[in-house]
Amino acid sequence: MSFQILLNLFLAFLWMFLSSNYSVSRFIIGYLLGLVVIVALRKFFKSRLYIDRVWAVIKLSVLFIKELILANVSVLTLVLKPKLELQPAFFKYETKLTEEWEITLLSSLITLTPGTVVVHVSDDSKSLFIHVIDSNDIDETIDSIKNSFEKAILEVSRS
Amino acid sequence: MTILANVLVVFLILCGLLFLVVAAIGLIRLPDLYTRAHAASKSSTLGVMCILLGVFFHFWLNENHFNPTILLGILFLFITGPVGAHIMSRSSYIAGVKPWAGTGRDDLKPEIERMKKEQNLK
């Protein structure tokens, strides 16, 4: 992936030298043309195209911001309700992710989603222990949300 | 244009203020440490982020001063907020802070007891 980015930068500089015009706009044009060349030659690279991964990162960030806002609205309604309706629980969540940065990212995503805080990560880092604030109806929905998160993270890390 | 910018700034700062107030009320009303961690980690992170964004837009649109330090501050809060909540709740569980009586399933207890036995902690 980093090789492709370096190649793209190299092509952009090459374009600047070819047109002997060293300005930012020329660099951007060269970068876009280099991108076209890299997309055209994609079958010669072993890893997948890097714009694919950049797109996955953008999708993950949008998901993150959406979940952060939803989490805050749910905390707001929970706290401001006249009667507290809580059913807290600690539950165990098995994760498929293996790399450490993936698990860190997943646990901070979970901490910022509605009603869940990661309390402990097991020593073999295969399961996360999550404190959930309302265990009645949320259990399944939380699992589905986390499957979407896990899928998005796998989408980023897939080579 | 100035009116639009001002509306954006005021909206963002009011939102941030609302979330911070909710975080404070949550810290008082919720029954135990773990539920308080929810209010503290989420609402205060988004609240401070909204206020910083409002300040950023005010200086950018009204005063023509682009200040990327504020954006770095937002990024920093975004990364450290959830980690802080995680570390505090984990260390208090290991130190033996009891969860609220209404807590249902507790999968964490056997795990922590096993860990303490392995490391010869009390």
UniProtKB/TrEMBL annotation, chain A:
Location(s), subcellular: Cell membrane
InterPro entries (alphabetical): Cation_antiport_E
One Pfam family, short name: MNHE
Membrane topology: Multi-pass membrane protein
Primary localization class, coarse: membrane
Membrane-crossing residue ranges in chain numbering: 28-45, 57-80
Domain of life: Bacteria
Keyword annotations of the record: Antiport, Cell membrane, Membrane, Transmembrane, Transmembrane helix, Transport
Molecular function as annotated in GO: antiporter activity; monoatomic cation transmembrane transporter activity
Cellular component, GO, one term: plasma membrane
Keyword Transport: yes
Family: Belongs to the CPA3 antiporters (TC 2.A.63) subunit E family.
Protein's UniProt name: Monovalent cation/H+ antiporter subunit E
Lineage: Bacteria, Bacillati, Bacillota, Bacilli, Bacillales
UniProtKB/TrEMBL annotation, chain B:
UniProt entry keywords in alphabetical sequence: Antiport, Membrane, Transmembrane, Transmembrane helix, Transport
Stretches with biased composition (Basic and acidic residues): 104-122
GO cellular component annotations of the record: membrane
An MF annotation (GO) of this entry: sodium:proton antiporter activity
PANTHER family (alphabetical): ANTIPORTER SUBUNIT MNHG2-RELATED (PTHR34703:SF1)
Similarity comment: Belongs to the CPA3 antiporters (TC 2.A.63) subunit G family.
Name this protein carries in UniProt: Cation:proton antiporter
Organism from which the protein derives: Ureibacillus sinduriensis BLB-1 = JCM 15800
Lineage, uppermost ranks: Bacteria, Bacillati, Bacillota, Bacilli, Bacillales
